[in-house]
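Reply to dn_fold:

You asked what the input looked like. This is it:
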Amino acid sequence: MSMGATTATGLQETYFVNPFGVPEYPELHDKLAQKFFNLMESKGVFLGEFRTQLGIEDRHRQGPYKAARSLVKFIESNF
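and this is what came back:
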């Protein structure tokens, strides 16, 4: 769901959830991304999702704040 960062409105379909990214080379990106994700996973790097709730009307302000606070707490308790 776009929320003012672009002129787009409503649900959007973008490559890799990035309206500012370059969509012309998904095969090249996928190959490189898979290589790096595999390497990070083999080295024990924590991989996860970051859910901001940015596209949810009543959560588009508090959602990113809560997600950021959760990330800080995770980092503080694990490193």
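The radius of gyration is 16 Å.
Hope that clears it up.
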